Amino acid sequence: MALTVLGAYVLTILWTARVSFSSARIFPTGDFVGFGQYARLFRNARWLLSLENLALYGALFIVACLVLGSLLAVFIDQNVSGEGVLRTVFLYPYAMSFVATGLVWQWILNPELGLQSVVRRLGFTDFTFDWIVRQDMVLYTIVIATVWQASGLVMALLLSGLRGIDGELWKAARIDGIPTWRVYVSIVLPMLWPSLSTAFILLFVMVAKLFDAVVAMTQGGPGTASEVPAKFIMDYLFGRANVGLASAASIVLLLTVLAIVAPLYYARSRAVRRGHA
Prior knowledge:
The protein is an all-alpha fold. 73% of the residues lie in helices and 0% in strands.
């Protein structure tokens, strides 16, 4: 079964790569135009904008999720009361689909119906929070929504790593008078490398796949201000009937993911093997 799934996956990639070297429009064709589609792709202003948006979004999303998830994990690791409830509350958003998350946050951020409207009704008539309709700020609203959803996953991964740390380490640190923050930075953080690297890989894949939240919240707008590669690919594949260009974009996105994730996964595997040696 695994070989069948793997074979179908590899064959699909190879087929997409072959189509990306053709002049296919509505249907795949058997001709060969070399790197013509790739040249057209990188002359496309919308594609370049989508890459810029994804780079900014990815940096903010990954850093925010790692920081917030780490803080939540450290907080729960203090054996707080109601730990089970808190874990469920923080992890629950991750169980939601990105479409549901996008729609909920679209309502919250809508200037006429959401947070801005509620605060103004409370008497703060000058309060403004209209990021979702501003081209220069809309991308940050997607970051807020998706960080809210994904930080619980980071919390769960890091909490598992924290619970695997020997309690004697903390006792020794207290005896030596080492500040708590120093223990976390110098000792705990390096020990959490496998959990952190796993979280980074999962978050990076989520960045590359970003589509549902954008469509649900902004449809890529205002204008093309929140355009991302996955939406570009879907639009050109189905909306503009340009299979060749969409396939070229898909291959570029795949190679980008592999170039970043594969070395990190290799380094993580080596670190885990050294830890077990």
